[in-house]
Amino acid sequence: MTATTSTTSIDLPQGVLHLTVSSSTDVGAVRRVNEDALLVSPTLVAVADGMGGHARGDLASSTAVESLRASAAEAIGPVSDVFAVVETANAAVRDLDVGSALCGTTLTGLTLVRPDDGGPASWGLFNVGDSRVYRWDGAGIQQLTVDHSAVQELVSAGLLSREAAESHPDRNIVTRALGADDEVETDVWTLPIVPRATYLLCSDGLTKELSDARIAELFARRDAGDLHGGDLAEELVRAAVDAGGRDNVTVVVVEAVLAPRPDAEA
């Protein structure tokens, strides 16, 4: 298991955003290669889950993440920039030389965007595939992204319950991925920046092993100071591996606090 923690403060039109970002990744108990990749930068965090096995899913995910790293500007841009950086990452994965095989990767992330009218900054949330972003508000977790998977399509159509989806034999089949086509269809949402919230980005190696209720329980224990190691990202990954670890597990936890500028308090 590898883990990191970083802190940064970003000056926004509506105040100063203080971020504490912790991340952890583990190959799991079954796989021999970790095909997940993650990115933590001052204005963008992301998780990618490579697919393809012998077609180098690890190369696909790391290529997507490095493309994001190179494309992401330090300045906060408009929402259109989010679509652009994902398209660039898709092109980078498409350009990989893996012979006749097809490799691809999921990609989900959280960044900061500004409106064209110069108003308050917002979160920009993007997703391709079945990696996820959740939000913890101190009382419960909410899944913010929508899986691009065959099972999610059944759930959305009312043909399958969420409980049944967790054990469905087709739950690993994704319907969108970077590298699959020359153009990628990306879901993008904008969310207001609230005074305090915590965001969880994860590959499906976490959600295969832990229910939303179990994830929420670990968040609550963290808030109560009851985690053994104290680091939520590490504890989530450890819990998933201990529960079976059938896949690679990657987690990024973003704790965000929006505070007034010191001069505004004077």
SSE map:
Elements: E1 2-12, E2 15-26, E3 36-41, E4 44-51, H1 57-71, H2 79-94, E5 104-105, E6 107-113, E7 122-128, E8 132-136, E9 141-143, H3 150-156, H4 162-165, E10 187-192, E11 196-202, H5 204-207, H6 212-223, H7 232-242, E12 249-259, H8 262-265
Antiparallel strand pairs: 1-2, 2-12, 3-4, 4-5, 4-6, 6-7, 7-10, 8-9, 8-11, 11-12
Helix pairs in contact: 1-2
Distance between the termini: 46 Å
Mean pLDDT equals 91
**Quaternary structure classification:** single chain
Shape: globular
β-sheet strand percentage: 25-35%
H-E string: EEEEHHEEEEEHHEEHHHEH
Number of helical elements: 8
Largest sheet: number of strands, sense, barrel closure: 6 strands, antiparallel
Broad CATH class: Alpha Beta
State the CATH superfamily name.
Answer: PPM-type phosphatase domain
Number of domain units: 1
Number of strands: 12
The radius of gyration is 18 Å
Strand order across the largest sheet: 1-2-12-11-8-9
Unreliably modeled segments:
none
- CATH topology heading: Phosphatase 2c, domain 1
Helicity level = 25-40%
